[in-house]
Amino acid sequence: MREEIRNTIATRAWARWTVLAIVSFTMMAGYVVAKEMSPLQFMLEKAAQDGGMGWTSGEFGIFAGSRGFFNVFLLMLFVGGIILDKMGVRFTGILSCVLMLTGAAAVYGVITYTSPDPMWSVPLLGTIKRQVALAALGFAFFGIGYEMCGITVSKVVVRWFSGKEMALAMGLQVALARLGTALALNFSLPIALNWGLPKPLLIGVFCVGVGLIAYLYYCTMDRRLDKEQGKQEIAQGDDEKFHFSDMKITIKNPGFWLITLLCMFYYSALYPFLDFATKLMISKYGVEAELAGAIPSILPYTSIVLTPLFGAWFDNKGRGATMMVIGSVLLTITLFVFAMPLNSSWIAVTLMCVLGIAFSLLPAALWPAVPKIVPMKQLGTSYSIIYYIQNIGLMLIPVLIGKVLERNTVGEQVDYTHSLIIFGIIGVGAIIASSLLLWMDRKRHYGLESPNIA
User: Fold this and answer.
1) Would you say 77 and 70 are in contact if contact means Cβ atoms under 8 Å apart?
2) Tens-place pLDDT, residues 41-75
3) Burial call 323-361: b when 16+ CB within 10 Å, e when fewer
């Protein structure tokens, strides 16, 4: 495979970096939509007469977790991974963008044109407002495309950067995704306060639409790569063709399961924390509502700078498994310190900066490590399993945290101690998984401690 690519467009620096810019922008648009509702929790939970929707913390938790509903219960991530390995990055990428656009538009329509009442009884979730149920349904459709886009973009980067600056490329892709998160955390609430609650959602729909157009342009470059490799649009050589039987090798690989568990613990602690972080800044640290989203946005802004740097280090120096251990330790310590009765806003800023290092260090090593453990022809399905397990945590933890916060709310006073301890305990799971992965790498010689650049 590597010999075949040497004389193709993928060997030209301008081409592969252009590809990276295009697919990273598409993914960044998805991240804007994924987090644009998080800063709005403060407004959504205000009474209707004050310009809010009257949601409860539990209902917001249900909405935040709904992104993974279909991926978990209907196994859509497995379906997406199989589609990716069978149909290729062009078809799967376009499909994922269309699903993201449909889901984002549905959430915007529900928030804009429906009222919270009446109450609906939803299986497994209990009695919730109609508006919450419909918005969660739209967000669940968005989640199918969002996660499918994630595994597709990961495979695109591996396809174009294998044997080259792969960790740097993945680090830059993650950095742009974090920029989407930062923009959503920073500007959603000020935009909503000044121009109305639905306006940030409309901006998110527009971003995903532009991302779809950008991906269509990428498809022309990918089609050229296939031509230069002497392939048909979908057909692959026998040595690269996906077979279900080949998955036995991956499933029996302990390194694959350790990196999957690490991904679940790490992101289940971090992303749900971000979902509730804006209101945490208001309730615990006394930050003004207009500025409350700026402190959590330190985390993605830090990672925008640091993730590519850590990725470049992994490319040239190695030590990927060690980086994952350090990132897990920093994550866990920071979350436990957040749980302490320290209410200064400067402490919150400092902790977010430390958390930003963890937010950069572990992903810069984790995603480029997967192709070292899994063969290219199984990469799409393998990523789908990783994302599926991750989505179980991303679905359940926000619902759990929302219920815990409801029980620890008296009037307008919210005690975040128990919920933050839960996040810290999940972080301990990440430390255990990453430590075992480092040990397994030394035993099985995956090459996680070796540089990526051949």
Assistant:
1) no
2) 878 887 655 566 788 888 888 898 888 889 888 88
3) bbbbbbbbbbbbbbbbbeeeeebeebeebbebbbbbbbb
